[in-house]
Amino acid sequence: MKKLVSTAFASFALLCLSTAALAAQPIKIGALFAVTGPASFLGEPERNTAQMVVDEINKAGGVKGRKLELITYDTGGDATKAVQLANKLVKNDQVVAIIGPSTTGDSMAIIPVVEKAQIPLISCAAGSKITEPVKKWVFKTAQNDGLAVAKIYEQLKKEKKTRVAILTVSDGFGSSGREQLKAQAAHYGIQILSDDTYGPKDTDMTAQLAKIRGSQAQALICWGTNPGPAVIARNAKQLGLSIPVYMSHGVSSKKFIELAGDAAEGIRLPSGKVLVADLLPKNDKQRASLLAFIKDYQNHFKAEGDHFGGHAWDAVMLLKGAIERGGDTPAGIRNALEATRNFPGIGGVFSYSAKDHAGLTKDAFTLVEVRKKDWVLVK
């Protein structure tokens, strides 16, 4: 009998130790960012921010006593590579959720992977089609390009400008923006006089801009991510294009001003509030989070926290909240994400639902303008 009791006790003790060891295992989160390549101005601050936030969560005790383990891979902005790495995160690393990728093209490419594997994805890219129509396992933190278009068109309507030219990059982000620019034009009384595109690797857009200069357009709207828009800004200045130039939120960081130089002066674009956090009223719901993020990033990386790093900050913090409320299983995280309401992040105040996995309204954007190599609010 004593031997049986002793054996039972030993088995129970071993079970307790095994359970404790299992409970102490870190929660694995995957991350896909374009740290190198043309979209590195997106992916590098996203990678930096995600790791910074995870480290701080772990330092504070983790989530429900368990640490987060961030497994990050560099897509290089290559959709084929993004799919390979997404499969690696799911099959080899066995992550419970994925944040990123940085670009719309990469995000669209991996959606079939996460949907099949039933792993929640929080994309850091802007294309509306990432979450429209709603996919069960896919969410996003970057503000929709549809909301950005509305912000620009509202300003043009306010200024009684009704004739525009659009110049969009021929990639996933550009095509999604172009669709929104065309779809919303009639609603705002906007007539598109010129609709042209450029390639992601093009280094001169004077031909397209010369056509626009010869039109009756009252404003130019360029849709793309660096370096193309900076080239367009410089080419427009060289040609003496006198109409106002609007860019997309795809260039809302100091990197655009650096690349465009003096040609950036006067250019307007819709952006998350992080670029002008210090100019916001004290009762703004996001202000505290924005200022804390900017200070934190500056302390860690000796650089300004920007719009793009903010997408990763939101993704990690939204996951943290979902794990706290829904547990550490993919299904529990997905359900808790969908139930998220009024989360004040960097990109805006998020409220997801079964019908909305983007979670933001156009209030997430503010219109900014480049003045003396810095951002100012457009009144």
UniProtKB/TrEMBL annotation:
Keywords: Amino-acid transport, Signal, Transport. Residues 1-23 form the signal peptide. Belongs to the leucine-binding protein family. GO terms for biological process: amino acid transport. It comes from the Bacteria. Pfam families: Peripla_BP_6. The gene is livK-1. It comes from Geomonas paludis. The keyword Protease does not apply. Residues 26-371 form the Leucine-binding protein domain. This is ABC transporter substrate-binding protein.
